[in-house]
Amino acid sequence: MKAVGLRKYLPIEQPESLLDVELQKPVPGGRDLLVSVQAVSVNPVDVKVRSPKERTEANPRILGWDAAGIVEQAGPDCTFFKPGDQVYYAGSITRPGSNSQFQLVDERIVGSKPQTLSFAEAAALPLTAITAWEALFERMGIQAAAPANTGKSILIIGAAGGVGSIAIQLAKYAGLTVIGTASRSESAAWAKEMGADHIISHHEDFVPQLNKLGLQNVNYIFCLNSTEQHWSGMAEAIAPQGKICSIVETDQLLNLTLLKNKSVTFCWEFMFTRAMYETDDMIEQHRLLEGLARLIDRGVIRTTLTEKLEPINAANLKKAHAAIEEGRTIGKIVLENF
To answer: What was the pLDDT predicted at 145?
Structure first.
């Protein structure tokens, strides 16, 4: 089968940074599905994993953690899906990724593809939607579509990217007032299109900008950009007993004492945790994606696809990686068809 992988971890402009390769088609066992991949999208995690390091792979490493496709074969213990079913998923970072014609994925982290979306439109969503859903409704404990959220607000730092684009929509679905940050007019326009009520800059202090909007502080903060850079600003902007969640790791020490007097909760979100550790509640990602598909088919949530490349090959994946490295992407880049 066709696939795109790497043997060396190189800068994206290097010819061997990503390679077109041929691999043996895998066979599913247990609760694995063998999926015929129709479309994939590219995320910052792809770039981080591929980034230069002193290591080589004996066998090609396959990246890609977003896909939509058709079930080709189901393992003997599968109960959710059968051959012919259309699915979407992010997969596990500990297993070969979706940049291949066929991929094995545990059915407990797979959802039925939304009926109203194409494969490309669906492939834009899983990783970012799982991340945003878990951060809002599980890590920070926000109630979905609840009257209790009336009058409450959330600040989404880096609102125009892949995760921000879906987080805005989910936060609006929950009934929150959404303040997104953006640094360019086009990213601000996109965040507004996704449903943000207000846009402020993440290059300026948050509180004075919130005050101009008539807000003293915010109840929730979802950080998608440089945790350490915004740490003091988040501590100042969060309401007493508020909650902050970040997805951006840091190698700098964070002063948690800044959160003490307000009794603020801080938590991390990493959507691969359940699959990586095969947690007892791993099946929640299946349920999450099924619930998201229903919201999409009802018109509550829309795809965040903004750019489409064809076919799925090393050359086009290099273009997508380069665009993400530039840090100026809006929404999601999707590739379809091998």
So the answer is: 82
CB 259 within 8 A of CB 240: no
Which residues, 6 or more positions from 325, have their beta carbon under 8 angstroms from its beta carbon?
Answer: 12, 47
Average pLDDT of 140-161? 93
3-state SS assignment for residue 67: strand
Phi, psi (deg, nearest 5) at residue 217: -160, -175
Which residues are 6's β-sheet partners? 61
Among 232, 250, 268, where does a domain finish? 268
Together in a domain, 159 and 264: yes
- DSSP state at residue 217: -
Stated pTM of the model: 0.96
Please give the backbone phi and psi of residue 201, each rounded to the nearest 5 degrees, phi first.
-95, 140
Measure the CA–CA gap between 300 and 228, rounded to whole angstroms.
34
**272-299 as b/e: b if 16+ CB within 10 A:** bebbeeeeeebbbbbebbeebbebbeee
Q: Write the pLDDT tens digit of every residue in 73-125.
A: 999 999 999 999 999 999 999 999 999 999 999 999 999 999 999 999 999 99
Q: Which of 238, 268, 298 is the last residue of a domain?
A: 268
Looking at residue 148, what is its pLDDT?
87
Verify that 144 and 100 share a domain, yes or no.
no
Contact 16, 7 (CB under 8 A): yes
* Enclosing H/E stretch for 186: helix 185-194
In a shared domain, residues 137 and 116: no
Q: Do 72 and 136 have their domain in common?
A: no
Domain span including residue 246: 129-268
Residue 310, beta-bridge partner list: none
What is the tally of structural domains in the chain? 2
